[in-house]
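Now for my pick.
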Amino acid sequence: MLNNACWITSPRDAGVAVYRYQKSFALRNKPLKKATLQASAIGVYTAELNGARIGNAVLTPGWTSYKHRIQVQTYDVTGMLRAGENLLSFGIGQGWAVGCIGYGHDNHYTADHVSLIAALTLTYADGTADTVATAPGWDVLTTPVLSTDIYMGETVDQTAPVEPVGKAVQDTVKTRLIPQVGEWITEHERIAPIAVLRTPKNELVIDFGQNMTGYVEVRIHAPRGSRIVMHHGEVLDRDGNFYNANYRSAKNENIYICSGEEDVFKPSYTFQGFRYIRLTEYPFDVADPAAFRAIAVHSDMKRTGHFLCGNEKINQLYHNIIWGQKSNYLDIPTDCPQRDERLGWTGDTQVFCRTGAINYDTSRFFRKWMGDVALEQTPEGAVKGVVPAALKNGDTRISAAWGDAACVVPWELYLAYGNKADLKRNLPVMKKWVEYMHSTGPAEFLWLGGMHYGDWLAMDAGEDSYVGATSNDLIASAFFAYSTSLLVKAGEALGEDMTEYRTLYRNVRAAFRDYFMENGMPKAEFPLTEVTVRKHETVDSVRRGMTQTALTLILHFDLCEETERPALAAKLVELIREAGNRMTTGFVGTPYLLHALSENGYSDVAYTLLMQEQNPSWLYSVCHGATTMWEHWNSIKEDGSFWSTNMNSFNHYAYGSVFDWIFGVACGIKTDPNAPGYRHINIAPHPDRCLGFADTSIDTAYGTVRVHWYYKGDRVAYEIEIPQGTTATLTLPNRPPVELQAGSWMF
């Protein structure tokens, strides 16, 4: 790969600016058969041949664990060459590798400067070949991009002269080059403004109507030297003014200086999360909405899942879930796309990955990310809170429910796609994580102590608490059991002898029951373990076992005996009723709560929670105008004020995990662990009039699976489609299961 090419960099530090690296070359005077370009960079690059952009990807080479590996992109550029002289050029911005990343702006995490490696192979019809490869001596020039940074934004000055910097010098980069593994990052929807506003503060604001990830393109003809200064925000405040204090220190500022001709501006080396832009400076008193387009950017995954029902608020919730995923599946599964974070949080990833694999084909996306999980797993088996690692001086704790992505994600992907090669590749990661939990803490079969995130942002320890009231030891030990059970299933699916891990699982489950439960119920309270979240003060005041989250985990993770289930489920319902038919769960309990209810005969209560509109609930944000999922249940309070500025993203997809219940229980489509990838489908819908009807489908490797139920008077009608090459077990309410072959069915 990249034969004869070496890493090069500028003879003068570019700092935050973008320099162009270029090489002129001539084709031989004989027929050209094929021209192939391979390229990568420390930073992010754009490539041009004869002034035309190569490929349609952006932010290449993407974000990997750069110290271990970096992706190489391959392009067929045969049709872009011309007879005689040609010019190959690259612009390189700081990107994730060099620029600001993490809470403390830990820039230079991978390197303190950008580097380029590339090779253009010219293959002629007679079998001969030439290579144009990066080497010392390439020309380096300035560009109109004066600064660029993932968090801070981009400045482009079309009046700035392009001047030579000197000749490129050879660089030393210690990493492994690999072919492109993940999906390409590409542009998608182009969104027109829905309004141009003058706020009460007399600021000029454009509303695109949709919170999203990407950037704004501006087409303008303005006097030379005119400035456009653009800031980004997700919401307006309660007075209708532009607001982006929740971005913390990320400026998200794009500055464009006009040439005096027809200009088209958009960032090339960064992205923003936003719904609104404020034109802090603009050449004219009014803004023509036709001059602005917001461009959505995310990994180029194939859409597979679709859903529609008769309740418009639930349809909006689904819309928000989709846009939350698109916004945060940008090469890695990020927590949010706007503030000074945008990191690959493992906890958010594992709770949403099942929903993610319903909505889109995420197989390649996660193949890449799990590869980085494996590379960054410690020799002891620990998996940190963010992958790729990006917190040099920040929070790098090892936390239950976050590190458990090592087991949850591979198993969910196997259920979704049935790819044994991927499962086998991830099995060592799963084993090492389970062994880590087995070896940590004072008890052999429990995870006690440690600095966990707990039931993150749950409401049961007080509205302003970061960590919920559920015992962290209980959560950690429950996930110890759960991940061990998934490891056993994965090993058995691959034909491995899992006797040792089955025994471990039985011991963990027994120890959990002995330590955390009494008379078939979780114990009420446990010794207080202080939990400090990054630079915040200690946030715990109580550590309880009798919480909605504790009961949910015990039920859903099968940590109770069958005889204990009725009482545990009834107690869970009692706590929900006491909370005003609302949940009090956070990141840990919420993804499993509705499942725990429906699995134990309380689908009606699950629907009550789904349809709840008071805080905390899924529809609270919908009723307050959300177009993506919120990080906190009440990111905007009833009085219009904000929950906080410090931890308050309006595009945080984790709570969108509720869709795997809508899809798998309300609509009733589930994979079969014994025939994964929808080779055999378990269909068991749970209709309810509050949805009116439900029509959902998923495109699988075999074809489309579809379930549509609707009411006809007092009865429910069902339309079901099963693709060729698959079978299904259908269980309708109050009817015995029936086996279905491929075809269209009506009941």
